Amino acid sequence: MIALGLIQALTLWGAAAIIPGIDVPSFGAALSVVIVLAIFGSLIWPLITRLLLPLTVLTFGLLALVATTAMVWLSLGVVDHSNPTVLGSFFVAVLMTVVSTIAGTLLDVDGDAYHLRVVRRRIRKSRGVNETDVPGVIFFEIDGLGEQVLREAVDSGRVPTIARWLADGSHRIVGWECDLSSQTGASQAGLLLGSNENMPGFRWYEKERGVLMVSSSVADTAEMERRASTGSGLLAVDGTSRGNLLSGDAPRASATLSVVRDKDRSQSSEFFAFFSDPSGMTRTLVLSVHDMILEKVAYWRQIRSGDEHVHRGGIYPLLRAAMTVVMRELNTATLLADIVEGVPVSYSTYVGYDEVAHHSGIRAPDALTVLGRLDRQLLRLERAIPQAPRPYEIVVLSDHGQSQGRPFRQRCGQTLEQVVEQACSSESGVIAPPAVAESWGEIGGWLTELSTEDSAGGRMMARATRSFVGADGVALGPGREAQDQHLAITNAADADRPEVIVLASGCLGLISFPRTPGRLTLEQIEHQHPGLVASLAAHPDIGWVMVRSETEGAVVLGAEGKYRLSDDSVTGVSPIAHFGANAADHLRRHDSFGHCPDLLVSGAYLSDEDEIVPFEEFMGSHGGLGGAQMHPFAIVPSGWSEIAAPIVGAAAMHHQLKAWMVEGGLPVAQSPAALE
């Protein structure tokens, strides 16, 4: 830290020579300014943050930059009795932050010292530490990272912290297979709550209620958790949930979508220590701007080189920075606080890799750069453990992988909705409610949490976001109005329901006929819409269609054959031959869901290239069967017992994680069934 202070002083001294309105006569004066600046930061900024926490969040850290500028201006005046200009002070604040960020990385400086001091003060005043010899567990989820890409990143040096753990034998990789559908909503329900039954996609239509469920909705994730929870989730015994879709029954949570309106469990005060560090907030802002620049450069390179790509202009760079930088820093800050407090078990989801891989590709250089920065967070957590009141184990895991592949629309010139509409005899039309990016839902949930805080800052946030508030809380993102209009149609009363609803969940398509109650059979669909199923099954960019037959039960149809799930009999060429050894079991389970759509459609899987065809505009996708999307991983301590059998399904991994926790001495909540 002394070296970093000297570098800041040198930066200030040099800046004074080139920035108009700044006068620093000597290096000693510059060093004095840095010291005064540190004092101001430790005394003034925490008070500002306590009063204006929501505004700090709403301005994406700009308030921190304003405050840093003001403190530079005051410090220069106090030390040198000069009259620095505000604009000059602003440029000095930005320059010092940039140089400190670069120098801190190069010198491998632990920049969390101030944050941890703030955390310790807050803990002493409130809960106190949890001192024990029983190791706690930090679950660090890297959303969307497949096992194969992880192993490649280890071999190439992209993730040095993980590579070191594996090389020195402290950890090992355990591969597992996720469920159909292979996406965060279903996977986190299984991992954190032990059940993901009846969740057929990221979005699905429930005929009996006439409602579209969306896994990035505050209300819908709360309902998903209500259905799946038995009170015995992974985090039920004094755990914390940090930045997840579902809470795992944790008694304390922050930025967790399913409980943002549960003020007994979800409190924005958990963010206080993170926003109490003005230099840290300014650094986050600078890193966000840097990430936006990297995104534009990566996008232009893909275009210039003629690489396959999807459009990602508009405000996408801002959304990406929010996911890859702001939410990353916030999650790490809250995990650091949990470590210093001695929380027995914490679970946090880092969504940055998943977000970038969707748009750039699963092995794109910018996606792997984001992965490397997540690895850096593991080093920060590792360094904080010696300051904890208990030992800790760190577990790195993913909820699903991603598969590479060019979108359906780019390949055939039509969307799935248009293909269905073309083949359908319906005069009432086909609707495909647009999907607002999952990340916008997470940001909206976070702002909803802050705006419902019972404080002056919370009321300020509520006023600032009131024009964006709907029935589901703060709603952000392009296409939100169009989605709301489609939801009004989708969720209409029986007589006004659309004839056909087409939903895309990555490479999985869900087609429902809302006006006919219950699950339609192949024969009923053929009567209402002759040729629809056959045209879908024969489409070159569709892998298979699952439908229930009146005579054969559930069948999977492809261009050259049929697979009957009741007895595994094949006619012609099996349409699921390349979709994994457990494909039939996954489909049988899916068929048993009450909310399984009338038609379940998969994009084609190109096994030779390990590519899947997504129905959404993604270069990396998941949600269905086939390839890397089905193969997440867990990096666990080598001292934990070996698994007895391959782990298939998120619920199976949930039970394995609990078993490992019990081995280490941690108490876990038993499900009602286990207690009988």
From TrEMBL:
The chain crosses the membrane at residues 27-48, 55-74, 86-107. InterPro entries: Alkaline_phosphatase_core_sf (IPR017850), Phage_holin_4_2 (IPR007165). The keyword Transmembrane applies. Pfam families: Phage_holin_4_2. Keywords: Membrane, Transmembrane, Transmembrane helix. Coiled coil: none annotated. This is Unannotated protein. It comes from freshwater metagenome.
